[in-house]
Structure formats: C-alpha cells, structure tokens
Write a structure and sequence with these properties.
This protein is an alpha+beta fold. The protein has two domains: 1-71 and 238-259, no CATH class; 92-212, no CATH class. It has ten helices and four strands. The protein has helices spanning 2-17, 19-24, 27-34, 39-71, 92-103, 106-145, 147-163, 167-189, 199-212, 236-258; strands at 77-82, 85-91, 220-225, 231-233. Strands 2-1-3-4 form a four-stranded antiparallel β-sheet. Helix 3 (27-34) runs antiparallel to helix 4 (39-71) and helix 4 runs antiparallel to helix 5 (92-103).
Length: 259
C-alpha cells in the first residue's frame, strides 16, 4: 500500500509540474486504441493505460532523483570524453540539470516523434526500393539452382491467385504482413541505418558541448576515477535504482513510525 501511494504521488507530481509532458506520454496509448476494435480494445486500453501510468511514475521519480543530485553540494565531477579523449569536466549537479532539461522539455518529445516518423518514411522508401530487387534476385537464383521447381512454384502461385476472387486480396495481405514484420525487425534492430536517434541523449550532449565549448563531434561519455584508480562510467539506471531503493526505505520507516 505505501508503494501504491508513492506511485500515485509520482503521477500527480508529473501532471502538476510537467502537464504537457504527461499528456504526450499518452500518445502511444491513444494510437493503440485507434487500432483496436470491439471488446478487445477495452482490455488492451486498460492494460496500456496502467503501463503508461507506471511509466509516468518512473519518469517523475527520475526527475526527483535528478533534483536531488542537483541540490547536492559535494563537488563531485564527471570527466567528459569525446571519441575516447578527455575534453573537460562538469559537476554532477550540472549533469543532472542537463538531463532534467532534456527529459522534461516538450520540444525534445516533439523532436523524438518527428525523428521516428521520418525514420519510418525512410524505411518505407527502403522497402519499396529494395524488396522488388530482392525478389528478382531470389527468382534468378531459383531458376539457376532448380529451374523446373521454380517455374512450377510460380505457376502454382499464379493459378492460386487467379482461381478465387478473394485469393489476390489474401495473398496481398500476407505479403503486407511479411513486409511489416521485416520493417519492424529493421526498425528495432538497425535504427541508426534509417536516421533514428535518441533525441534525449542528443539534447544533453548538445548542452555539454555548449557548456565546454566543444567544436568536435562524436559520442560523449562520462566517467570518474573511483578508489583504486578504477574508471567508473556514468550509469543512470544504477543511480535511479539506488535512489528508488533509498526512497522506499525512507517511506517504510516513516509509515512504521506513524503506526
């Protein structure tokens, strides 16, 4: 029960402080709802709405974690690397401020949506351009390896398509499903090939470049020297996990004390 109250308070905090960010995170749920019909839509909408609220709670908790790091005055710094070379250093509070600005900026969400849409357009162009070429060369290879078998297969496909009135529509639907499966595999497996990038990371990398006045492009990495001269790279997931664990512990002790 305390965990549920904590989740609800995080959701309320996100809607109070970053209303439009909270609204934009419902777009996938609305898109999925438009694709469903009948009773199935109700079940899918409830499940996706619950996942959306959970994601919004984690987003708000991440913002609280960043605010806590911004309020620290311990003076800890991160060394900035670009393409493996050290180019400067920034404080942990500055880094938290850059990340918070990227995560809770509506412009970042809009740029990410536009980037994904443009990536989908490039993917459709790629499929329309290369799938016919792929089919052509498959037929050529089939004719070279087994000419009679390939000809018989083509004849069966043509006869099946022309035999029944709805057969062409069924074959077209099967082809579209196969093309959609290939598109999803390429989109999630090789997003960089179609220009899809993480706009949130790009935003705080741009902020770091402006802060340090960097004039070189490349992937930005953060690290600091720990005990024993070991290099520890920034891990936002680990930091957020530790923050949530500490906050749950504080919440349990508070509830136990009130009892």
């Amino acid at each position: 029960m305390p965990g549920f109250r904590l989740l609800c308070s995080d959701v309320v905090r996100l809607y109070r402080d970053h209303y439009w960010v909270a609204v934009i995170t419902w777009l996938p749920c609305v898109l999925l709802n438009s694709m469903q019909h009948g009773k199935q839509a109700i079940v899918v909408d409830i499940a996706f709405a619950a996942l959306t609220l959970l994601g919004q709670a984690l987003l708000s908790a991440y913002g609280s974690c960043l605010e806590q790091r911004m309020s620290k005055q311990d003076g800890s710094t991160w060394t900035v690397q670009v393409n493996g070379s050290d180019v400067g250093a920034i404080s942990d509070a500055e880094m938290a401020a850059f990340r918070r600005r990227a995560v809770f900026s509506v412009d970042t969400y809009l740029r990410q949506i536009a980037n994904i849409v443009m990536g989908g357009v490039r993917l459709l162009y790629w499929l329309a351009r290369y799938i016919p070429i792929f089919i052509f060369w498959c037929l050529i290879c089939g004719l070279i390896v087994d000419a009679s078998g390939t000809q018989a297969l083509l004849k069966d496909v043509v006869v099946a398509a022309m035999g029944e009135p709805g057969r062409v529509a069924a074959l077209t639907a099967d082809g579209l499903r196969i093309a959609a499966s290939i598109a999803l595999f390429l989109l999630f497996g090789f997003p960089w090939a179609f220009g899809i990038r993480n706009e949130f990371r790009a935003e705080w990398e741009r902020a770091i470049s402006e802060r340090l006045r960097l004039y070189r492009s490349g992937r930005v990495a953060l690290h600091r020297d720990a005990e024993g001269h070991t290099v520890v790279f920034a891990n936002e997931g680990r930091i957020l996990h530790e923050y949530l664990r500490d906050r749950r512990g504080v919440n349990r002790s508070t509830v136990g004390g009130t009892r």
